Amino acid sequence: xxxxxxxxxxxxLGWTAQxxxxxxxxxxxxxxxxxxxxxxxxxxxxxxxxRIFKTATFNPPDMRITHNGDSLQDGYLFMTPWPQAGPDxxxxxxxxxxxxxxxxxxxxxxxxxxxxxxTLNDTPYLTYWHGTNARIGHGYGEVVFADDKLSxxxxxxxxDIIPNPTVYDLYGNGANGTVGDVDIHEQQMTNxxxxxxxxxxxxxxxxxxxxxxxxxxxxxxxxxEVDIATQEVxxxxxxxxxxxxxxxxxxxxAVVGPESNGTASSPWDWMHINSIELVGEDYLIDCRHTWSxxxxxxxxxxxxxxxxxxxxxxxxxxxxxxxFRWQHDARAHNVTSxxxxxxxxxxxNSDQDHHSTEAGQSKALVFHLDMPVNDSWSAxxxxxxxxxxxxxxxxxxxxxxxxxxGNQLVGWGQxxxxxxxGPDGEVRYHTAFxxxxxxxxYRAYKQVWHATxxxxxxxxxxxxxxxxxxxxxxxxxxxxxxYRRCRLQV
Length: 490
Hints:
Pfam families: Arylsulfotran_2. This is ASST-domain-containing protein. The protein is mainly β. The chain has a domain at 309-447. Helices cover 0% and strands 41% of the residues. It contains no helices and 36 strands. The protein has strands spanning 2-9, 18-21, 28-29, 34-35, 39-40, 50-51, 63-67, 76-79, 81-83, 94-97, 103-107, 112-120, 123-133, 139-146, 152-155, 187-189, 194-205, 216-227, 233-238, 273-279, 282-287, 292-296, 303-308, 328-333, 339-346, 363-370, 380-385, 398-400, 408-411, 417-421, 427-433, 439-441, 445-447, 459-463, 466-470, 480-487. The N and C termini lie close together (9 Å).
């Protein structure tokens, strides 16, 4: 007599590997299970600690977690760890994790960023950027949409740009082939079935006015609104068309510095756009290297107003504690005809100017802006969230001032950590990779997501009388039923 072990999901399972003691007789058993946890440690200290599973080769980072016991918003954590220096990530991929450090879904490909849930035609999708990126902060790729069966399609418009040669050569040929023209920084859905994306164009320009070469080159910041169904561009904007309102000398990034020298082989990234969203019919953009947030007209692309992190721009001068620099993820909230609130992640650091004081720590800020714009009054800072310990993130980062229950979420970007704050700013939950200073996650999200994979089944591994099971990407399994079938030998 031989036995085959068959497994049936009672519902659809989340990713955590489960372990069972196998039955010795009978036909069907419902057996209590528990999450299987094993952490990998690299004795050479070249990889940060990672999680190990019996049923798959996925290796998400092992995280340190603190929780003060106060209520948290429902949902999973979305992150895309990537190495930067020192101990590496065991696997660079897109991960959806529970608050308890258990894997729910791994997007098992290299070059995934901005993994999150967005809505198209009233239907939630996982969206993420996939492509080739360099540590200078640019990338060339496509936007992937995955439905609740984890079947996907891509948005990959032809944007007719010359890529930065640090990532690709001037003919658009990279080590992994040409993936697409969409940049890594932004892939923001609108309420009109379009998506907003960034792109970077390597462009010849006279830089003698800012101490560069007359035959210099820039990395020009572009953004596009793309129709998802047709993949046609419905609006485009490039920074160099608006030098009358945003001149080169407003950039705080040196022409010759750690990132560039203003030549064709190392073009100057003078503006560095990193987020876009619709505000009414117009476009709110954040530009790291000018320390400014701009509202761009949908009619002619002109600047309607801008908030400068040092001078205040079109608003009155900011108080010292409200100044920001090298910022990311600017978003508008509570928009009316007379005011709006503006949130952003203030890096306050770069390769060019490191700080070691409280004022220089990375932080999350919210401003109240009265309209119409008037430089006789300043933008009012209404929130300021410092990290639970001093963090100085040179790049990346995200801030969501309300994740659904009044709690707030900060992703610390270059410091691989995520913090959930209560409505009043108290730290309720904090998670960090074991070596947070050597791994980054460009943004972090906490969202509700439900999926049942259609193209792959649960995986079962039997070892030493125990069964280990997982189903990559399934979210709603409550229990498993294990069958032991008897088969007669003739």
